[in-house]
Write a structure and sequence with these properties.
This protein has 471 residues and is of the alpha/beta class. The protein contains 16 helices and 18 strands. Helices cover 47% and strands 17% of the residues. It binds adenosine monophosphate (AMP) and zinc ion.
Length: 471
Amino acid sequence: MYLYNSLSHKKELFVPNNPDLVKMYTCGPTVYHYAHIGNLRTYIMEDVLEKSLRYLGYNVLRVMNITDVGHLASDADTGEDKMLKGAKRENKSVMEIAQYYTDAFFADCKKLNIKTPEVVQPATGCIAEFIAIVEGLIEKGFAYVAGGNVYFDTSKLENYYVFNDHDEEDLAVGVREGVEEDTNKKNRNDFVLWFTKSKFEDQALKWESPWGIGYPGWHIECSGISMKYLGEDLDIHAGGIDNAFPHHTNEIAQSESYLGHKWCNYWFHVHHLNTDTGKMSKSKGEFLTVSLLEQKGYDPMAYRLFCLQSHYRRNLVFSWENLDNAVVAYQKLVAKISTLQNGNDIDEAVLAAMKERFVTALNGDLNTSLAITAVYDALKAKTSDATKLAAIADFDQVLSLNLLEAAEALRKKEAEEAAASTGPEVDALVAARTAAKKAKDFAEADRIRDELKARGIEIIDTPQGTKWRRV
Ligand code: AMP
Ligand code: ZN
């Protein structure tokens, strides 16, 4: 499989350290609010990546953190803890907020067929691990204590800006949010590993540490959780493009300084979901959730298809019109599939060729729109319905669009509708037969019975009257 690696800035053949197990890490949500559909675009594409690797024959162990402490209002470690902000907003405790929005996140993922990673670890459960890494960094001279906080010293690195081809806008995240400079820092990009001092003294969750009572920085959480479950090396680290700087840059800085060797080989970044006013973000106040889409009558699968129709390394513009187009595409696809008749006549050679096209799409830097084209091509192919259905079942292991289930549901719905619409007509024929029998016109009564039989309807004469059923 060829994947674009943000570290090398080019597409590279994916070769895991251990061919038997791909170790994958994903930055999880900060659980202070609902995930918006932009966040979920990232999780959908990461889900497709994981499922593609499995489809291609790899075993994957995937770990994800839940940020329930330490992610401050600005990604540059200033401002109030987002969790505390959420708790104040809703008049609840931080842990209540964390539980509520963690559950909400996984409920959204379920609706979008996003598989839960094998390991999901809240940051508050790994404080000892984070402290051990911070101690190691101080010992090795990569970190210093100033004004009560522990900082990573970025001047100790030869190359701190590992993803240096990012947009100016991405690189400026740290300073953009207009919060004042932290004067304890030796260098502008030094970042906090452990906080004991902050302007916000009501920080709810705090722990003992060698530097006083405090809490971890956001970046150390991902390094610590990854190392705890995946060890000293990692094959793929995934996240949204806005996390490349400073979050992932800082993860690399601290992990490699602590370990003394390269940590992660491939960095997979999903580009943004934008609205007409730019990146969809929670700080802007208004954002779209899966529940809101559902309230407006949208099937979450249509949103998943909308995401799969475009490449993960392109910004995707959300508009209701674009989503409506995806709805139509999804409905047409499902309607087409619902007309296929299952059978045993699978043409294995044709099926293999269809799969090859699908695999080629995935192997080309996860080209999901081409993978969707493979579905259309399979439907158009001159082959048996059984072959087409086998191909779609196979592809949907990765696409997870519920294609067969939705087609079956549509068939059932259409059958019910047909039954409902023919019911009164059948009732009328049954009544006409009863009248014919009463008038001793047995020939007419038999004719009606035969006509109904030909339409798959059986007539049953009971002491309570004549009934009918479909056979
Ligand atoms: P958060 O819960 O804010 O930590 O973000 C969760 C994930 O969503 C991270 O991987 C972000 O990079 C990603 N993300 C944030 N905004 C967007 C967006 N508009 N489009 C796509 N991904 C996003
Ligand atoms: Zn992270």
